[in-house]
Design brief:
Structural class: mainly beta
Radius of gyration: 16 Å
Number of helices: 1
Largest sheet: 9 strands, antiparallel
CATH topology: Glucose Permease (Domain IIA)
CATH superfamily: Glucose Permease (Domain IIA)
CATH architecture: Distorted Sandwich
Oligomer: single chain
Order of helices and strands: EEEEEEEEEEHE
Strand content: 35-45%
Helix content: under 10%
Number of domains: 1
Distance between the termini: 17 Å
CATH class: Mainly Beta
Length: 162
Amino acid sequence: MLVIEVVRSSLLVAALLVSPVVCARAPYRPPVEAPVVAGFSMPYGPYGPGNRGLEYRTAVDQPVRAVGPGTVLFAGPVAGELAVSVAHVDGLVSSYSYLRTVAVRRGATVVAGQVLGATTDRFQLGFRRNGLYLDPAPYLGVALRPRLVGAGVTPPGAGCAV
């Protein structure tokens, strides 16, 4: 588990980078082309603090694509926000949160890369298996690395971890 303490100052901020290159062993693909701004942090209990997925900084109306083939379990509003959940053949359930629009319906079969909807200015991808939250990064074949950058600077991309 990766734990990062973020200290904000006027000079430096911590950013998480996700590799834009998908490693060969990854069974799933990233759902959006955008930087990850917050990594997974195991929640403390069903309602406790933690980050239940990867948070991306996206542009409004950016397409969100299915990470892999599966069946749509849910497509609609959750607590005033639009979301989609997809069940995959290996038992994994991927969830796509903070959507501006939804392009699929419950029960639909989707293929990897199919558009599920469009983003707001942020987006979260979550993975669950048997009701337990999992870190999506290893399934996507990407590595999150802490990186210090100047305030207001967008970090550059990075390759797969060795």
